[in-house]
């Protein structure tokens, strides 16, 4: 039910009252102020501390280190920051984080280890940003959907709390 409602809101929103444009603007701000700086510095730190990953063992170590250190921070900050950009109160941001963190974190543990292993093992350093941008486009589509689904769940909870 929740996923279907979020999908309906997403489909309805195409070009309606600037909803899609506002979502794109929020994701642009998140990319410029959170995603870009966090992962730029995070991957530089991984390169500094672990180095190149020419072997499966080193690529796995690099991927696990990133998943355990960078990814939980990013998911948490993403939902808090997106809530702030949507004008939500801190209490609502924490509610959205509680609703969304576990499913997004699990999905990220499926998607990003595979994407990063390919990146660390097969993509030359000069092509890594382009490769990760392509993977990130897919991931951001999922994040956008998850964020919209969490907003729909929050609306349902708020409506259910209103007496008839």
TrEMBL record:
It holds the Pfam family Mpv17_PMP22. InterPro entries: Mpv17_PMP22 (IPR007248). It is a multi-pass membrane protein. Signal peptide: none annotated. The keyword Transcription regulation does not apply. Keywords: Membrane, Transmembrane, Transmembrane helix. GO terms for cellular component: cytoplasm; membrane. Its main location: membrane. It comes from the Eukaryota. This is Uncharacterized protein. It comes from Elliptochloris bilobata.
């Amino acid at each position: 039910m929740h996923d279907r409602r979020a999908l309906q809101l997403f489909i309805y929103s195409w070009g309606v009252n600037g909803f899609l444009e506002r979502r794109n603007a929020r994701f642009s701000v998140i990319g410029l102020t959170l995603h870009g700086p966090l992962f730029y510095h995070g991957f530089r730190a991984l390169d500094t501390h672990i180095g190149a990953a020419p072997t499966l063992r080193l690529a796995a170590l690099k991927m696990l280190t990133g998943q355990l250190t960078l990814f939980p921070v990013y998911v948490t900050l993403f939902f808090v920051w997106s809530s702030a950009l949507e004008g939500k109160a801190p209490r609502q941001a924490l509610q959205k984080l509680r609703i969304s963190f576990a499913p997004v974190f699990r999905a990220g543990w499926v998607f990003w280890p595979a994407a990063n292993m390919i990146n660390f093992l097969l993509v030359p350093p000069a092509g890594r940003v382009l490769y990760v941008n392509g993977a990130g486009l897919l991931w951001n589509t999922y994040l956008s959907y998850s964020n919209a689904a969490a907003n729909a769940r929050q609306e349902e909870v708020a409506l259910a709390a209103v007496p008839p």
